[in-house]
Amino acid sequence: MTTHDVFNQVPPLVGHDTADDPALLDGLFREGGGWAAEEIHELGRMSGSEEAQEWGRLANENRPVLRTHDRYGHRVDEVEFHPAWHDLMRVAVGHGLHARAWTERTGTHVARAAKFYVWRPDAGHGCPISMTYAAVPALRHAPDLARQYEPLLTSDTYDFGLRPPLSKGGILAGMSMTEKQGGSDVRANTTRAVPRPDGTYLLTGHKWFTSAPMCDVFLVLAQAPEGLTCFLLPRVLPDGTLNAMRLQRLKDKLGNHSNASAEVEYEQAVAWRVGDEGRGVRTIIEMVNMTRLDCVIGGAAGMRQGLIQAAHHAAHRQAFGTYLIDQPLMRNVLADLAVESEAATVLMLRLAGATDRGETAFKRLGLAVSKYWVSKRWPSHSAEALECLGGNGYVEESGMPRLFRESPLNSIWEGSGNVAALDVLRAMLKEPETLEVFFAEVESASGADTRLDAAVQQVKDSLADTATIELRARRIVERLALVLQGSLLVRYGHPAVADAFCASRLDRDWGQAFGTLPSGVDFGSIISRATPKTD
Q1: Could you tell me if 184 and 416 are in contact, meaning their C-beta atoms sit under 8 angstroms apart?
Q2: What is the DSSP letter of 488?
Q3: Domains of the chain (ranges, CATH numbers)
Q4: Hey, which end of the chain has fewer CB within 10 Å, N or C?
């Protein structure tokens, strides 16, 4: 008997199609993006390949490096990336995950959401992709600038390097909003913008977080004479000189290591105004709303990623004489993880469909509710999925620690939990029609499930007490999210998934720990939808 025989170990999860996801495909066709199914499967097969997963590993193990000066002492303010980063970006841009959605046919935001969902070898490179996607509607507040830059933002060409944006085949956009003294309170910003006779402005100030500082252009908030204003700031000026955007340091983040996030100082950096002076928040909120949608998509994608890893492990690992996937309590855990994943997936596709159809009122409240809830559920989902792999899941080589570290991000990015919850209250107060449209959506499933009907009434009753509504904001938003997910699953989801969701999430006794589904749930049907098929 040898001491180094390897057996009862799970084979790598490679050679699968990440688009082989029933909830995703059903929603893709339902919401009008079915025309892109072939490309999404192509991208899914690439995402599940050994090569792409190796790119994700290499991009994270070889962190970006900041070069502030060249060997002679000249400022260069460059960030160097591992070649795997560029491979990931080239695929994402080439498949239009960035901004092609603004130029395509009906159902294009749904198709783009599905692509963003399946292309997950690495989460970090999704940041500049997401910001470029979100920059287009904000930039349209300055039609002259939009005419120049939008064709480059929507181009499928990945053209990395420091050159004037208008000389490149394609460009990427970032944003700089937060400052160290304010965070989400962007009106506390102290960056100053001084107008010049030629219509440009000179910006001076310090930004605490600028993700992907090697993007070509940035939407920046600064204080102009008439108040907080949005500006377009290029990394390289039209004459080829570097703009005065100084990279101070890269942040050592909790989550992915592949993407660079920097502190930036502007020393009279040249910028162009986007929108009216004093209307910066209203202008850049167009960008924030789209990146919030990507928070929901990213959370749903992260849950699916953790789920298939857990199901794959359980299908191949034996303990106590049987495969884990056949043991009753593990089946409860896996089914519960699958229910949460499908609820997030159907929700993100509904929101993408609302974007395509211009359902502004529904999206206003539905997006804030969903961003809060899906972002909150992802970390606990990721932790439970990791636990399914036992000690192997706690080891970096499994990829699960990287997934777990990334999971808290979406609840912070574009407004933390409190900011999102208070935004829901603000919408209900200032735009009451958004609440009416929200409940009209939820109640379109009225009569289909008594548990859902009871939960909807409970939510309505909870809104009557306005005296303590801010104190209870998180609880209210949680219940709004649950009845919305329940309604979507009852109408469109797999019957076993919808039943399990209503029997757990809409029950007063729900403890939120995974693996507590009641008996009577069709565990087999739910788990089979979650178990990936490999070559």
Answers
A1: yes
A2: H
A3: 22-278 (2.40.110.20), 283-530 (1.20.140.10)
A4: N
